[in-house]
Amino acid sequence: MTESPSAPELSVVVITRDDETSLRRLVASLGAAGQVTDASYEIIVVDDGSTPSVRADLAELTGGVPLLLLRRGGAGNRSAARAEGAERARGRVLAFVDSDQEAPAHWVAEHLRWQRAFPSAVVAGHRRHRDEPGSSHWRPEVRTRVTAEFSQNYARIAGAWYLPFGCNLSVPTALYHELGGHSDIFVGWGYEDHDFGYRAWAAGTRTVHNPFAWTWDQHHVVRTDGDRVAEWEANRARFLAAHPDPHAQAVRLIDNYPSGEGSSPGQMWMDSFRQFDAALRLLDDIPDPAPPTRTLTVLSPVDAAHARTLLYEDVPLRIVDGLPGSDLDLEVQREDLTHIEYHALLS
């Protein structure tokens, strides 16, 4: 992609299918009235075969932020839809988000803050699930199980490449295309994001986690019906066939649809992710993350300055960061500080 002089700094690519109510909510949240940022950005919506098609007046919701609406036919292909949106993007950075999300006011600024700090990285954001749109009640998503145990610092997770989900991630546009973008071999739901994360890791690209770049996820339902499981299994088979490397084959250990009487499916998934991470450590002779010998609670600028004096002393630390704007979230991942366990107290 050739960047024009008037190109925006960020292109937000949204894929949608048969959910215009949620899409319009998301687009409004991404508009000028919804985001607090001085950066220039555009929105690209890819209607992946909706019936009826997304209405053409969608751009009226953005408050002047440029919006391009692309229409695809057929039964839908999430991976190909993301790739098509990326092809039309003009921004230096790509951010991907799904139409059932809603962007808080800091979302654009947070992805750009991290892209400026890590100009050659895949930046992952997580989600907060709302059972009802606009509700103050929410629940954490499944990746929170991983970061609660390992750290919000992805450098401590050997299997971090599995964790960037296409519903909320950003990557430099040029790097996205160098990596081959999203593969169109995947049909229906599942594995297109793991495939992109794996190919990024195999090419030497870092995967980092911005704990502040979260989105609201509306009416999230974990489907376990036969059709959904079959889609996932078929796409996992495509992934395994495309990547014979032992690191990729280790995804066989992850149980996406665990079951067991009297057991927590979420915790059983976490048990399988732990086995996956351990297998990757064994392959590359990576030691287990060192348990912290000290916990630092950061509540003031003085606390943050003190934490920085200890970051590079090779002493395993747990940092609990309650200071908005401390930038410790960036610092602990800037130099692959695997001995630093980091947890932000998020508002």
From TrEMBL:
It is an enzyme of class 2 (transferase). Residues 11-142 form the Glycosyltransferase 2-like domain. Pathway: Cell wall biogenesis; cell wall polysaccharide biosynthesis. Its EC number is 2.4.-.-. It comes from the Bacteria. Residues 165-207 form the Galactosyltransferase C-terminal domain. Gene3D superfamilies: Spore Coat Polysaccharide Biosynthesis Protein SpsA, Chain A. Keywords: Glycosyltransferase, Transferase. It holds the Pfam family Glyco_transf_7C. Transmembrane segments: none annotated. This is Glycosyltransferase.
